[in-house]
Write a structure and sequence with these properties.
This protein has 571 residues and is an alpha+beta fold. The chain is 64% helix and 7% strand. It is built from 21 helices and seven strands. Strands 1-2-3-4-5 form a five-stranded mixed β-sheet. The protein has a two-stranded antiparallel sheet with strand order 6-7. The longest helix is centred in the N-terminal third of the chain and has 38 residues, at 130-167. The protein is globular.
Protein backbone atom coordinates (compact mmCIF):
# COMPACT_ATOMS: atom_id res chain seq x y z
CA UNK A 1 0.00 0.00 0.00
CA UNK A 2 2.89 2.37 0.74
CA UNK A 3 3.84 2.50 -2.94
CA UNK A 4 0.23 3.03 -4.00
CA UNK A 5 -0.44 6.21 -1.98
CA UNK A 6 0.26 9.55 -3.71
CA UNK A 7 1.74 11.13 -0.56
CA UNK A 8 2.67 14.54 -2.03
CA UNK A 9 -0.82 14.89 -3.49
CA UNK A 10 -2.46 14.10 -0.14
CA UNK A 11 -0.30 16.66 1.69
CA UNK A 12 -0.88 19.41 -0.90
CA UNK A 13 -4.61 18.64 -1.08
CA UNK A 14 -4.84 18.80 2.72
CA UNK A 15 -3.18 22.23 2.74
CA UNK A 16 -5.47 23.45 -0.05
CA UNK A 17 -8.50 22.22 1.88
CA UNK A 18 -7.21 23.99 5.00
CA UNK A 19 -6.81 27.25 3.07
CA UNK A 20 -10.36 27.07 1.69
CA UNK A 21 -11.88 26.23 5.09
CA UNK A 22 -9.93 29.12 6.62
CA UNK A 23 -11.41 31.55 4.11
CA UNK A 24 -14.91 30.22 4.80
CA UNK A 25 -14.37 30.53 8.55
CA UNK A 26 -13.08 34.09 8.20
CA UNK A 27 -16.13 35.04 6.16
CA UNK A 28 -18.28 33.92 9.10
CA UNK A 29 -16.19 35.88 11.59
CA UNK A 30 -16.23 39.01 9.42
CA UNK A 31 -19.87 38.64 8.29
CA UNK A 32 -18.85 38.80 4.64
CA UNK A 33 -19.73 36.70 1.58
CA UNK A 34 -20.42 33.78 1.51
CA UNK A 35 -21.39 33.80 5.21
CA UNK A 36 -24.04 36.41 4.51
CA UNK A 37 -25.75 33.94 2.15
CA UNK A 38 -26.24 30.58 3.91
CA UNK A 39 -27.04 28.83 0.63
CA UNK A 40 -23.54 29.50 -0.66
CA UNK A 41 -21.80 29.01 2.69
CA UNK A 42 -23.22 25.55 3.40
CA UNK A 43 -22.82 24.47 -0.21
CA UNK A 44 -19.16 25.49 -0.42
CA UNK A 45 -18.34 24.16 3.06
CA UNK A 46 -19.97 20.82 2.23
CA UNK A 47 -17.90 20.38 -0.89
CA UNK A 48 -14.69 21.63 0.78
CA UNK A 49 -15.11 19.01 3.51
CA UNK A 50 -16.62 16.03 1.68
CA UNK A 51 -14.58 15.80 -1.52
CA UNK A 52 -11.09 15.96 0.09
CA UNK A 53 -12.14 13.64 2.92
CA UNK A 54 -13.52 10.94 0.63
CA UNK A 55 -10.58 11.37 -1.73
CA UNK A 56 -8.13 10.84 1.14
CA UNK A 57 -9.86 7.57 2.05
CA UNK A 58 -9.69 6.01 -1.42
CA UNK A 59 -7.04 7.76 -3.56
CA UNK A 60 -4.19 5.73 -5.03
CA UNK A 61 -1.68 6.44 -7.79
CA UNK A 62 -3.86 4.68 -10.34
CA UNK A 63 -7.49 5.62 -9.63
CA UNK A 64 -7.48 9.40 -10.06
CA UNK A 65 -9.72 9.33 -13.15
CA UNK A 66 -12.16 6.95 -11.47
CA UNK A 67 -12.43 9.29 -8.48
CA UNK A 68 -13.18 12.23 -10.77
CA UNK A 69 -15.75 10.10 -12.58
CA UNK A 70 -17.65 8.70 -9.58
CA UNK A 71 -16.69 10.58 -6.42
CA UNK A 72 -16.82 14.12 -7.82
CA UNK A 73 -20.48 13.90 -9.00
CA UNK A 74 -21.53 12.50 -5.63
CA UNK A 75 -19.80 15.36 -3.78
CA UNK A 76 -21.38 17.92 -6.12
CA UNK A 77 -24.79 16.39 -5.33
CA UNK A 78 -23.98 16.58 -1.63
CA UNK A 79 -22.97 20.22 -2.09
CA UNK A 80 -26.27 21.00 -3.81
CA UNK A 81 -28.14 19.44 -0.90
CA UNK A 82 -26.00 21.56 1.41
CA UNK A 83 -27.22 24.61 -0.48
CA UNK A 84 -30.82 23.53 0.16
CA UNK A 85 -30.05 23.16 3.87
CA UNK A 86 -28.56 26.66 3.80
CA UNK A 87 -31.83 27.90 2.31
CA UNK A 88 -33.58 26.55 5.42
CA UNK A 89 -31.53 29.03 7.47
CA UNK A 90 -33.10 32.04 5.77
CA UNK A 91 -34.14 34.71 6.55
CA UNK A 92 -30.93 34.68 8.54
CA UNK A 93 -32.00 37.66 10.66
CA UNK A 94 -34.88 35.76 12.25
CA UNK A 95 -34.38 32.02 11.79
CA UNK A 96 -32.22 29.99 14.15
CA UNK A 97 -32.10 26.51 12.62
CA UNK A 98 -28.87 24.98 13.89
CA UNK A 99 -30.50 21.58 14.38
CA UNK A 100 -30.99 21.10 10.63
CA UNK A 101 -27.27 21.74 10.07
CA UNK A 102 -26.34 19.14 12.69
CA UNK A 103 -28.70 16.60 11.12
CA UNK A 104 -27.30 17.36 7.68
CA UNK A 105 -23.75 16.82 8.95
CA UNK A 106 -24.64 13.42 10.40
CA UNK A 107 -26.71 12.18 7.46
CA UNK A 108 -24.20 13.49 4.91
CA UNK A 109 -21.40 11.67 6.73
CA UNK A 110 -23.41 8.45 6.78
CA UNK A 111 -24.33 8.82 3.10
CA UNK A 112 -20.70 9.57 2.23
CA UNK A 113 -19.42 6.42 3.89
CA UNK A 114 -22.13 4.37 2.20
CA UNK A 115 -21.32 5.86 -1.21
CA UNK A 116 -17.57 5.45 -0.68
CA UNK A 117 -18.09 1.80 0.17
CA UNK A 118 -19.92 1.09 -3.09
CA UNK A 119 -17.62 3.31 -5.20
CA UNK A 120 -14.46 1.60 -3.90
CA UNK A 121 -15.93 -1.81 -4.51
CA UNK A 122 -16.99 -0.82 -8.03
CA UNK A 123 -13.56 0.65 -8.83
CA UNK A 124 -11.90 -2.59 -7.68
CA UNK A 125 -13.67 -4.46 -10.53
CA UNK A 126 -14.66 -7.14 -8.02
CA UNK A 127 -18.18 -8.56 -7.58
CA UNK A 128 -20.17 -6.64 -4.96
CA UNK A 129 -20.68 -8.93 -1.98
CA UNK A 130 -21.82 -8.07 1.51
CA UNK A 131 -18.66 -9.41 3.13
CA UNK A 132 -16.49 -7.11 0.98
CA UNK A 133 -18.76 -4.13 1.64
CA UNK A 134 -18.70 -4.91 5.35
CA UNK A 135 -14.89 -5.02 5.36
CA UNK A 136 -14.66 -1.71 3.50
CA UNK A 137 -17.16 0.01 5.79
CA UNK A 138 -15.33 -1.05 8.96
CA UNK A 139 -11.98 -0.13 7.46
CA UNK A 140 -13.14 3.34 6.41
CA UNK A 141 -14.78 4.02 9.76
CA UNK A 142 -11.77 2.91 11.82
CA UNK A 143 -9.30 4.87 9.68
CA UNK A 144 -11.53 7.95 9.97
CA UNK A 145 -11.77 7.57 13.74
CA UNK A 146 -8.03 6.98 14.12
CA UNK A 147 -7.24 10.08 12.09
CA UNK A 148 -9.44 12.26 14.28
CA UNK A 149 -7.87 10.73 17.38
CA UNK A 150 -4.43 11.56 15.98
CA UNK A 151 -5.51 15.15 15.25
CA UNK A 152 -6.92 15.55 18.77
CA UNK A 153 -3.71 14.28 20.38
CA UNK A 154 -1.61 16.46 18.07
CA UNK A 155 -3.69 19.51 18.98
CA UNK A 156 -3.27 18.68 22.67
CA UNK A 157 0.51 18.48 22.26
CA UNK A 158 0.57 21.90 20.57
CA UNK A 159 -1.37 23.40 23.47
CA UNK A 160 0.91 21.69 25.97
CA UNK A 161 3.96 23.16 24.26
CA UNK A 162 2.37 26.61 24.09
CA UNK A 163 1.52 26.39 27.78
CA UNK A 164 5.09 25.49 28.70
CA UNK A 165 6.48 28.42 26.70
CA UNK A 166 3.90 30.68 28.31
CA UNK A 167 5.24 29.73 31.74
CA UNK A 168 8.62 31.20 30.78
CA UNK A 169 6.80 34.32 29.44
CA UNK A 170 7.05 33.44 25.76
CA UNK A 171 3.49 34.17 24.57
CA UNK A 172 4.13 33.84 20.83
CA UNK A 173 2.97 30.22 20.54
CA UNK A 174 -0.08 30.80 22.75
CA UNK A 175 -1.16 33.65 20.50
CA UNK A 176 -0.37 31.63 17.37
CA UNK A 177 -2.81 28.90 18.43
CA UNK A 178 -5.56 31.51 18.51
CA UNK A 179 -5.08 32.39 14.83
CA UNK A 180 -7.51 30.66 12.49
CA UNK A 181 -5.11 31.05 9.55
CA UNK A 182 -2.67 28.82 11.47
CA UNK A 183 -4.97 26.41 13.30
CA UNK A 184 -7.18 25.21 10.42
CA UNK A 185 -4.42 24.47 7.86
CA UNK A 186 -2.20 22.80 10.50
CA UNK A 187 -5.01 20.51 11.66
CA UNK A 188 -5.85 19.65 8.05
CA UNK A 189 -2.21 18.86 7.43
CA UNK A 190 -2.16 16.63 10.52
CA UNK A 191 -5.26 14.83 9.24
CA UNK A 192 -3.64 14.27 5.83
CA UNK A 193 -0.50 12.91 7.50
CA UNK A 194 -2.64 10.58 9.63
CA UNK A 195 -4.38 9.30 6.49
CA UNK A 196 -1.01 8.34 5.01
CA UNK A 197 0.05 6.61 8.23
CA UNK A 198 -3.09 4.59 8.85
CA UNK A 199 -3.81 3.66 5.24
CA UNK A 200 -0.28 2.22 5.08
CA UNK A 201 -1.04 -0.13 7.98
CA UNK A 202 -4.47 -1.40 7.02
CA UNK A 203 -3.59 -4.76 8.56
CA UNK A 204 -3.78 -3.15 12.01
CA UNK A 205 -7.12 -1.63 11.06
CA UNK A 206 -8.37 -5.09 10.10
CA UNK A 207 -7.09 -6.46 13.43
CA UNK A 208 -9.08 -3.79 15.29
CA UNK A 209 -12.13 -4.69 13.21
CA UNK A 210 -11.65 -8.37 14.07
CA UNK A 211 -11.42 -7.56 17.79
CA UNK A 212 -14.64 -5.54 17.68
CA UNK A 213 -16.42 -8.27 15.74
CA UNK A 214 -15.25 -10.85 18.28
CA UNK A 215 -16.69 -8.79 21.12
CA UNK A 216 -19.99 -8.47 19.25
CA UNK A 217 -19.97 -12.23 18.66
CA UNK A 218 -20.13 -12.79 22.41
CA UNK A 219 -22.72 -10.04 22.95
CA UNK A 220 -25.22 -11.20 20.32
CA UNK A 221 -26.46 -14.27 22.28
CA UNK A 222 -26.96 -12.13 25.39
CA UNK A 223 -28.90 -9.56 23.38
CA UNK A 224 -31.03 -12.31 21.83
CA UNK A 225 -31.88 -13.73 25.28
CA UNK A 226 -32.95 -10.25 26.43
CA UNK A 227 -35.03 -9.80 23.27
CA UNK A 228 -36.81 -13.15 23.56
CA UNK A 229 -37.29 -12.71 27.30
CA UNK A 230 -38.91 -9.32 26.77
CA UNK A 231 -41.31 -10.73 24.18
CA UNK A 232 -42.17 -13.61 26.50
CA UNK A 233 -43.19 -11.25 29.31
CA UNK A 234 -45.34 -8.92 27.19
CA UNK A 235 -48.48 -11.15 27.24
CA UNK A 236 -48.44 -10.91 31.03
CA UNK A 237 -47.50 -7.24 31.49
CA UNK A 238 -49.30 -5.76 28.49
CA UNK A 239 -48.20 -2.79 26.39
CA UNK A 240 -49.65 -0.23 28.78
CA UNK A 241 -46.65 -0.49 31.08
CA UNK A 242 -44.31 0.04 28.14
CA UNK A 243 -46.15 3.18 26.97
CA UNK A 244 -46.05 4.67 30.48
CA UNK A 245 -42.31 5.19 30.10
CA UNK A 246 -42.94 7.79 27.36
CA UNK A 247 -40.15 6.22 25.31
CA UNK A 248 -41.41 2.69 24.75
CA UNK A 249 -41.17 2.80 20.94
CA UNK A 250 -37.66 4.24 21.15
CA UNK A 251 -36.47 1.44 23.45
CA UNK A 252 -38.03 -1.21 21.23
CA UNK A 253 -36.39 0.20 18.09
CA UNK A 254 -33.03 0.43 19.85
CA UNK A 255 -33.28 -3.26 20.71
CA UNK A 256 -34.23 -4.07 17.13
CA UNK A 257 -31.43 -1.93 15.67
CA UNK A 258 -28.76 -3.43 17.94
CA UNK A 259 -29.89 -6.94 17.08
CA UNK A 260 -29.69 -6.21 13.35
CA UNK A 261 -26.27 -4.57 13.71
CA UNK A 262 -24.86 -7.44 15.78
CA UNK A 263 -26.27 -10.05 13.37
CA UNK A 264 -24.63 -8.31 10.42
CA UNK A 265 -21.32 -8.11 12.26
CA UNK A 266 -21.31 -11.83 13.10
CA UNK A 267 -23.06 -13.43 10.12
CA UNK A 268 -21.84 -12.38 6.72
CA UNK A 269 -22.61 -13.91 3.36
CA UNK A 270 -20.70 -17.16 3.90
CA UNK A 271 -23.66 -19.49 4.33
CA UNK A 272 -21.49 -22.35 5.58
CA UNK A 273 -20.21 -20.40 8.56
CA UNK A 274 -21.59 -21.41 11.95
CA UNK A 275 -19.86 -19.26 14.59
CA UNK A 276 -22.01 -20.71 17.41
CA UNK A 277 -23.08 -24.03 18.86
CA UNK A 278 -26.21 -25.31 17.03
CA UNK A 279 -28.41 -24.53 20.05
CA UNK A 280 -27.24 -20.91 20.26
CA UNK A 281 -27.44 -20.58 16.49
CA UNK A 282 -31.06 -21.77 16.61
CA UNK A 283 -31.82 -19.32 19.44
CA UNK A 284 -30.48 -16.42 17.37
CA UNK A 285 -32.36 -17.79 14.37
CA UNK A 286 -35.64 -17.52 16.33
CA UNK A 287 -34.75 -14.07 17.64
CA UNK A 288 -34.21 -12.75 14.11
CA UNK A 289 -37.44 -14.33 12.86
CA UNK A 290 -39.37 -12.50 15.60
CA UNK A 291 -37.89 -9.05 14.88
CA UNK A 292 -40.98 -7.98 12.85
CA UNK A 293 -42.97 -8.30 16.08
CA UNK A 294 -40.92 -5.41 17.44
CA UNK A 295 -41.82 -3.42 14.34
CA UNK A 296 -45.52 -3.95 15.06
CA UNK A 297 -45.09 -2.87 18.70
CA UNK A 298 -43.05 0.21 17.77
CA UNK A 299 -45.39 1.43 15.03
CA UNK A 300 -48.40 1.02 17.32
CA UNK A 301 -46.77 3.29 19.90
CA UNK A 302 -45.79 5.82 17.22
CA UNK A 303 -49.29 5.77 15.75
CA UNK A 304 -50.80 6.56 19.16
CA UNK A 305 -48.52 9.60 19.52
CA UNK A 306 -49.13 10.85 15.98
CA UNK A 307 -52.88 10.39 16.33
CA UNK A 308 -52.88 12.30 19.62
CA UNK A 309 -50.38 15.10 18.92
CA UNK A 310 -49.68 15.09 15.18
CA UNK A 311 -46.36 14.78 13.39
CA UNK A 312 -43.19 16.44 14.68
CA UNK A 313 -39.65 16.29 13.36
CA UNK A 314 -38.73 13.68 15.97
CA UNK A 315 -41.72 11.51 15.08
CA UNK A 316 -40.91 11.78 11.37
CA UNK A 317 -37.42 10.51 12.12
CA UNK A 318 -38.85 7.75 14.30
CA UNK A 319 -41.16 6.63 11.49
CA UNK A 320 -38.31 6.67 8.96
CA UNK A 321 -36.03 4.62 11.22
CA UNK A 322 -38.93 2.26 11.90
CA UNK A 323 -39.49 1.79 8.16
CA UNK A 324 -35.81 0.99 7.50
CA UNK A 325 -35.60 -1.43 10.43
CA UNK A 326 -38.82 -3.10 9.31
CA UNK A 327 -37.50 -3.56 5.76
CA UNK A 328 -34.36 -5.25 7.12
CA UNK A 329 -36.39 -7.44 9.49
CA UNK A 330 -38.93 -8.51 6.87
CA UNK A 331 -36.12 -9.24 4.40
CA UNK A 332 -34.43 -11.54 6.90
CA UNK A 333 -37.77 -13.18 7.80
CA UNK A 334 -38.46 -13.81 4.11
CA UNK A 335 -35.07 -15.53 3.79
CA UNK A 336 -35.72 -17.66 6.88
CA UNK A 337 -39.17 -18.73 5.70
CA UNK A 338 -37.95 -19.47 2.16
CA UNK A 339 -34.55 -21.05 2.83
CA UNK A 340 -34.58 -22.03 6.51
CA UNK A 341 -31.00 -22.59 7.69
CA UNK A 342 -29.63 -21.37 4.36
CA UNK A 343 -31.15 -17.91 5.00
CA UNK A 344 -27.68 -16.34 5.14
CA UNK A 345 -27.65 -16.34 1.35
CA UNK A 346 -30.62 -13.96 1.50
CA UNK A 347 -28.92 -11.82 4.15
CA UNK A 348 -26.25 -10.73 1.67
CA UNK A 349 -28.80 -9.72 -0.98
CA UNK A 350 -30.97 -7.86 1.53
CA UNK A 351 -28.01 -5.94 2.98
CA UNK A 352 -26.63 -4.92 -0.42
CA UNK A 353 -30.04 -3.66 -1.58
CA UNK A 354 -30.87 -1.97 1.74
CA UNK A 355 -27.46 -0.31 1.78
CA UNK A 356 -28.43 1.53 -1.40
CA UNK A 357 -31.83 2.35 0.09
CA UNK A 358 -30.22 3.83 3.22
CA UNK A 359 -27.85 5.87 1.03
CA UNK A 360 -30.73 7.31 -1.01
CA UNK A 361 -32.83 8.03 2.08
CA UNK A 362 -29.97 9.85 3.81
CA UNK A 363 -29.79 12.12 0.78
CA UNK A 364 -33.54 12.62 0.46
CA UNK A 365 -33.98 13.79 4.07
CA UNK A 366 -31.89 16.81 3.11
CA UNK A 367 -34.06 17.65 0.12
CA UNK A 368 -37.59 18.99 -0.45
CA UNK A 369 -38.77 15.40 -0.91
CA UNK A 370 -38.36 14.52 2.78
CA UNK A 371 -38.17 17.87 4.54
CA UNK A 372 -39.35 16.79 7.98
CA UNK A 373 -39.71 20.38 9.17
CA UNK A 374 -42.14 21.08 6.33
CA UNK A 375 -44.05 17.85 6.99
CA UNK A 376 -44.34 18.70 10.71
CA UNK A 377 -45.60 22.22 9.89
CA UNK A 378 -48.29 20.84 7.60
CA UNK A 379 -49.41 18.33 10.23
CA UNK A 380 -49.61 20.85 13.09
CA UNK A 381 -51.38 23.51 11.00
CA UNK A 382 -53.86 20.88 9.77
CA UNK A 383 -54.66 19.97 13.39
CA UNK A 384 -55.33 23.65 14.11
CA UNK A 385 -57.58 24.06 11.08
CA UNK A 386 -59.55 20.91 11.97
CA UNK A 387 -60.11 22.13 15.53
CA UNK A 388 -58.06 19.30 17.05
CA UNK A 389 -56.12 21.93 18.97
CA UNK A 390 -57.02 25.48 20.00
CA UNK A 391 -55.18 28.76 19.46
CA UNK A 392 -54.32 28.79 23.17
CA UNK A 393 -52.95 25.24 23.17
CA UNK A 394 -51.11 25.58 19.86
CA UNK A 395 -47.33 25.28 20.39
CA UNK A 396 -46.00 28.47 18.80
CA UNK A 397 -42.62 28.04 20.51
CA UNK A 398 -42.07 24.68 18.79
CA UNK A 399 -42.39 26.38 15.40
CA UNK A 400 -39.68 28.85 16.42
CA UNK A 401 -37.28 26.44 18.13
CA UNK A 402 -37.57 23.32 15.97
CA UNK A 403 -39.06 24.11 12.57
CA UNK A 404 -36.71 26.81 11.28
CA UNK A 405 -37.64 28.54 8.04
CA UNK A 406 -40.74 26.39 7.55
CA UNK A 407 -42.02 27.31 11.01
CA UNK A 408 -41.27 31.00 10.44
CA UNK A 409 -43.17 31.12 7.13
CA UNK A 410 -46.12 29.20 8.59
CA UNK A 411 -46.47 31.54 11.57
CA UNK A 412 -46.24 34.64 9.38
CA UNK A 413 -49.07 33.24 7.25
CA UNK A 414 -51.04 32.29 10.38
CA UNK A 415 -50.98 35.90 11.63
CA UNK A 416 -53.68 36.87 9.11
CA UNK A 417 -56.02 34.30 10.64
CA UNK A 418 -55.05 35.26 14.19
CA UNK A 419 -55.85 38.93 13.58
CA UNK A 420 -59.52 38.17 14.15
CA UNK A 421 -59.45 34.85 16.03
CA UNK A 422 -56.72 35.51 18.64
CA UNK A 423 -54.95 38.86 18.14
CA UNK A 424 -52.92 38.50 21.34
CA UNK A 425 -51.05 35.57 19.74
CA UNK A 426 -49.67 37.89 17.05
CA UNK A 427 -47.65 39.67 19.73
CA UNK A 428 -46.27 36.34 20.93
CA UNK A 429 -45.20 35.47 17.38
CA UNK A 430 -43.61 38.88 16.80
CA UNK A 431 -41.61 38.54 20.01
CA UNK A 432 -40.12 35.27 18.77
CA UNK A 433 -38.71 36.75 15.58
CA UNK A 434 -36.52 39.64 16.68
CA UNK A 435 -33.26 40.33 14.88
CA UNK A 436 -30.69 39.72 17.63
CA UNK A 437 -27.58 39.62 15.44
CA UNK A 438 -26.58 43.20 16.23
CA UNK A 439 -28.30 43.58 19.58
CA UNK A 440 -26.78 46.39 21.64
CA UNK A 441 -27.86 49.43 23.59
CA UNK A 442 -26.57 51.64 20.79
CA UNK A 443 -28.92 49.93 18.31
CA UNK A 444 -31.89 50.11 20.67
CA UNK A 445 -32.59 53.74 21.53
CA UNK A 446 -34.83 55.21 24.23
CA UNK A 447 -37.30 56.18 21.51
CA UNK A 448 -37.49 52.55 20.32
CA UNK A 449 -37.87 51.40 23.91
CA UNK A 450 -40.92 53.66 24.37
CA UNK A 451 -42.66 51.91 21.47
CA UNK A 452 -42.73 48.73 23.57
CA UNK A 453 -44.24 50.47 26.62
CA UNK A 454 -47.89 50.54 27.69
CA UNK A 455 -48.79 53.17 30.32
CA UNK A 456 -51.59 52.94 32.85
CA UNK A 457 -53.55 54.97 33.61
CA UNK A 458 -51.66 57.49 31.46
CA UNK A 459 -48.12 58.39 30.43
CA UNK A 460 -48.12 61.70 32.30
CA UNK A 461 -48.00 59.79 35.60
CA UNK A 462 -44.41 58.78 34.86
CA UNK A 463 -41.48 61.17 34.86
CA UNK A 464 -38.94 61.21 32.06
CA UNK A 465 -36.24 60.31 34.59
CA UNK A 466 -38.11 57.15 35.63
CA UNK A 467 -38.63 56.05 32.03
CA UNK A 468 -34.95 56.57 31.29
CA UNK A 469 -33.93 54.68 34.46
CA UNK A 470 -36.06 51.68 33.45
CA UNK A 471 -34.57 51.84 29.94
CA UNK A 472 -31.02 51.85 31.33
CA UNK A 473 -31.79 48.90 33.59
CA UNK A 474 -33.45 46.93 30.77
CA UNK A 475 -30.51 47.44 28.39
CA UNK A 476 -27.83 46.86 31.02
CA UNK A 477 -26.96 43.42 29.62
CA UNK A 478 -26.83 42.60 25.91
CA UNK A 479 -28.02 39.03 26.52
CA UNK A 480 -31.14 40.09 28.41
CA UNK A 481 -33.38 40.13 25.31
CA UNK A 482 -34.67 43.63 26.05
CA UNK A 483 -35.96 44.14 22.52
CA UNK A 484 -38.39 41.21 22.56
CA UNK A 485 -40.11 42.25 25.81
CA UNK A 486 -43.30 44.15 26.47
CA UNK A 487 -43.14 46.76 29.24
CA UNK A 488 -46.13 47.89 31.30
CA UNK A 489 -45.83 51.02 33.44
CA UNK A 490 -48.53 51.03 36.14
CA UNK A 491 -49.11 53.86 38.62
CA UNK A 492 -51.37 52.96 41.57
CA UNK A 493 -51.55 53.38 45.32
CA UNK A 494 -50.34 50.16 46.92
CA UNK A 495 -50.05 51.22 50.58
CA UNK A 496 -53.06 53.54 51.10
CA UNK A 497 -51.04 56.73 51.49
CA UNK A 498 -52.96 58.46 48.69
CA UNK A 499 -49.79 58.54 46.57
CA UNK A 500 -49.10 56.47 43.48
CA UNK A 501 -46.42 53.77 43.49
CA UNK A 502 -44.79 52.79 40.23
CA UNK A 503 -44.81 49.16 39.15
CA UNK A 504 -42.98 48.18 35.97
CA UNK A 505 -43.94 44.80 34.52
CA UNK A 506 -41.62 43.10 32.03
CA UNK A 507 -43.26 40.43 29.90
CA UNK A 508 -42.00 38.04 27.23
CA UNK A 509 -42.93 34.63 25.88
CA UNK A 510 -41.19 32.81 28.71
CA UNK A 511 -41.77 34.83 31.86
CA UNK A 512 -43.46 37.78 33.52
CA UNK A 513 -41.58 39.80 36.12
CA UNK A 514 -42.20 43.03 38.00
CA UNK A 515 -40.29 45.68 39.93
CA UNK A 516 -41.49 48.39 42.29
CA UNK A 517 -39.56 51.57 41.49
CA UNK A 518 -38.92 54.22 44.13
CA UNK A 519 -36.70 57.23 44.70
CA UNK A 520 -33.69 56.73 46.96
CA UNK A 521 -31.12 59.52 47.34
CA UNK A 522 -32.75 61.19 44.34
CA UNK A 523 -32.11 58.09 42.19
CA UNK A 524 -34.69 55.67 40.89
CA UNK A 525 -34.14 52.14 42.27
CA UNK A 526 -36.02 48.89 41.53
CA UNK A 527 -37.18 46.33 44.07
CA UNK A 528 -38.27 42.91 42.86
CA UNK A 529 -41.91 41.88 43.30
CA UNK A 530 -42.81 38.16 43.45
CA UNK A 531 -45.21 37.14 40.65
CA UNK A 532 -47.90 34.47 40.92
CA UNK A 533 -48.96 33.49 37.39
CA UNK A 534 -50.39 29.95 37.49
CA UNK A 535 -52.09 30.26 34.08
CA UNK A 536 -48.81 31.46 32.51
CA UNK A 537 -50.46 34.48 30.93
CA UNK A 538 -48.06 36.06 28.43
CA UNK A 539 -50.13 39.02 27.20
CA UNK A 540 -51.40 41.49 29.82
CA UNK A 541 -51.96 44.46 27.53
CA UNK A 542 -55.66 43.81 26.88
CA UNK A 543 -56.37 43.45 30.61
CA UNK A 544 -54.53 46.69 31.35
CA UNK A 545 -56.23 48.62 28.55
CA UNK A 546 -59.60 47.45 29.87
CA UNK A 547 -58.62 48.83 33.31
CA UNK A 548 -58.71 45.38 34.81
CA UNK A 549 -56.14 46.43 37.42
CA UNK A 550 -56.94 46.13 41.13
CA UNK A 551 -55.06 46.30 44.40
CA UNK A 552 -55.50 43.29 46.68
CA UNK A 553 -54.76 43.60 50.37
CA UNK A 554 -52.74 40.72 51.85
CA UNK A 555 -54.76 38.09 53.65
CA UNK A 556 -52.05 37.65 56.28
CA UNK A 557 -50.25 40.50 57.98
CA UNK A 558 -46.58 40.40 58.79
CA UNK A 559 -45.22 39.65 62.28
CA UNK A 560 -42.62 41.87 63.91
CA UNK A 561 -40.59 40.91 66.98
CA UNK A 562 -38.37 43.77 68.07
CA UNK A 563 -36.53 44.83 64.92
CA UNK A 564 -37.09 41.49 63.15
CA UNK A 565 -39.96 41.19 60.68
CA UNK A 566 -41.45 37.87 59.59
CA UNK A 567 -43.39 37.92 56.33
CA UNK A 568 -46.19 35.47 55.69
CA UNK A 569 -45.20 33.26 52.72
CA UNK A 570 -48.79 32.40 51.74
CA UNK A 571 -50.05 35.85 50.77
Amino acid sequence: MDNQLPKPFIIVFALLQGAILTLLYQSVEQSSWPATQPVWLTSLATFAISFPLLTFLCITKTNGKAIAKYLLPFCLLLSALGGYIGFQLEPIKYVNNDSVVVVFGFTALLASFKALMYIKQYMSKQPITYSSLFTLSWRNFIIFAECWLFVAIFWGILHLGAGLFSVVEIEFFQQLLRKDWFVIPVLNLAFGFAIIVFRNITYTVDHISTILQTLIKFLLPALTVVSLGFLATLPFTGLGTLWKTGSGSLLVMWLQALTLFFVNAVYQDESHERPYHPFIHRLIFIGIALLPVYSVIAVFGLWLRVEQYGLTVDRCWALLVWLLLTCFSLGYLFGIVKQRDAWLETLSKVNIAMGVVVLVVMLLVNSPVLNFQSIAVQSQIARLEKGQTTYDDFDYQYFDHSLGRQGYLALQALKDELATAAPEKIVIIDRMYINTQHRSKENFTLTQFKTLVTYWPQQSEFSANLIEAVYNKATEHQWSGFDNNSYYFLATDLNGDQKAEFVIITENNYSTSANLWFLSDEKWQPKHMPVHNPSKVRYLKEQIMENNVTVIKPKWNNLKVGDVTFKAPIN
